Amino acid sequence: MQKPSAIWAAGLELADLLDDAGNIDPGKAQTAVHTAAEELGLMNRPRTPQPHPAQQSGMSGIPGITGADRFADVIAGRDR
């Protein structure tokens, strides 16, 4: 969760997260985080990957050198 204060904004109290010994109960904390995120609309949305120009077919990322040229150099044993 990017905004932990959302747990308190969702109306939860510290006592709601404690076990019988007075320690934070990991299960209760995880449930509280999920509930708060869902109630407040803070659920993480997956990022849409952005293409990188150097990862396109035939491009080496080096100006003037295509992937085909580089591959041919490797096969021929030439090092650029």
Shape by Cα distribution: elongated
Instruction: Profile the largest sheet.
Output: none
Number of strands: 0
The SS-based structural class is: mainly alpha
SSE sequence, one letter per element: HHH
Strand content: under 5%
Radius of gyration: 26 Å
Distance between the termini: 47 Å
Number of helices: 3
Overall pLDDT metric = 78
Low-pLDDT residue intervals, each spanning 5 or more residues: none
Helical residue percent?
25-40%
List strands and helices in order, with pairings.
Elements: H1 6-9, H2 26-40, H3 67-76
Region (Disordered): 43-66
Protein architecture, described:
The chain contains three helices and no strands. The longest helix has 15 residues. The mean pLDDT is 78.
Top keywords for this entry?
mainly alpha; 3 helices
Summarize the structure.
The protein has 80 residues and is mainly α. Helix content is 36%, strand content 0%.
